[in-house]
Every structure is written in C-alpha cells, then in structure tokens.
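Journal club prep — side note

Before the paper discussion, L.F. wants everyone to see what a predicted structure for a comparable chain looks like in token form. Sequence:
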Amino acid sequence: MALSVIEWKRTSGQYVAILQSLERFEPNSIQPIERRGLETILGGTLRGTVTVDWYALAYDRQELDFEEAREMSRRTLEQRRGVNAT
C-alpha cells in the first residue's frame, strides 16, 4: 500500500504527518522505529499480524518550520514508493 499523509498534527515540540489510521495498529504498539537526521519514523504492529508498518513521520519544531517538514515528508514517501516498487 502506498502511504501518503492523511493528516498533520502539531504538538508542542513536533510536526507529525499521520500516514495511516491508528485503528489499523495493535493498541500501544506505536513507537519510534527509525531516526534519520531531523526525521523520526513512528511505526507499530498492524492488527492481527506481526508486521510492523509506518504510522507517522515526526519532525522537531525547533529545527524545522512546517513547510520544511512537509517537503521532507514528501521526499521520504517518494523514496519509500521507489523502494517498494522494485
């Protein structure tokens, strides 16, 4: 499944690009699964499986403005689509 941003949330410290509905994941399974510089990938276990998938991308508000976070998320999702297409 090709992921895209379905919603943006802003916490006091982060911009968070939500990629999938929280209901798709096992309760309490969402956690950071990878950090790439200014970007953190949050993932969790899909309900009824052992498969870990991306839930959201998070960006530090101290380091980036919202437009920079949007651009980084776009590039990251394009890269993921390229990897999954092969």
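L.F.'s comment for the group: Residues 7-85 form one domain. Keep this in mind when we get to the figures.
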